[in-house]
Amino acid sequence: MDLCVTIKGVSFLLQTGMGILGNTVVLLAYGHIIYTEPKLLPVDMILCHLAFANLLLLLTRCVPQTMTVFGLRELLNDPGCKVVIYAYRIGRALSVCITCMLSVFQAVTIAPAGPRLSRLKPALPSLVLPTFAGLWLLNMAICIAAPFFSMAPRNGTVPAFTLNLGFCHVDFRDNLSYVINGVAVSGRDFAFVAVMVGSSGYILLLLHRHSRQVRGIRRSQGGGAETRAAKTVVTLVVLYVVFFGLDNVIWIYMLTVAKVSPVVADMRVFFSSCYASLSPYFIISSNKKVKAKILCASEQDRSSADTQESNDK
Q: How far is CA 290 from the centre of its chain?
């Protein structure tokens, strides 16, 4: 195994391991919150669903990609490829859409009450589950073509207009199918990016106005909740725009060539998965409930270890 393959394999392995661990911890923390509290708040429901979507993305894309990089072949047959690629497309799409949903929800929540928002705000909690269902149906419909073009790798050269994922091939057979699929996926992504950036910018504007109004009061407190909320939104926007922006730039380039280099395809996979790997740690660091559950669990483990050590003595 040469140096480039080793670096690529280690990079995918670290990204996959960190992402699966982080999203699993977030889901377990929310599982414990659901067990101890009567119901989740809307924001917590959105964050929990985001962690699930990111975990689905990592399991269906990064895990087989990492195994392929380390030399494992013939991982999936044709039906397996169809299921895995379809699940990956849905997980990736939901990660984008739910991040946008979180940003819009926060923008509506902190917006000044007006004639329309005064009726919308009380209804927000009841809209969370229907929005989840709508996003699932939307993305299942947009990604429905993926299983028809997915297949296990064949021996020989890779045909034109085929995405070589290593463990599977996505053969679009002709330029028209290739471009239509790419435009549909990119159009959806850019639409949700635009909405999320707009709503996040609106949040920052509201926080800036509020901080100016209470600057004298908050100055001695170092910014308070407004500063923390602004940092949360800025971090979310930066993570989303940088990684999914790079992903879609590479995807647009891939639409312009008949045969895509494996290096380019690997770069797109890595960048498109960075958000799924890093976002759970952002959730853990910024969400007090999740952080409290993790700290509580670690303290319990430490107490159990101390008790066991005392008993051994």
A: 18
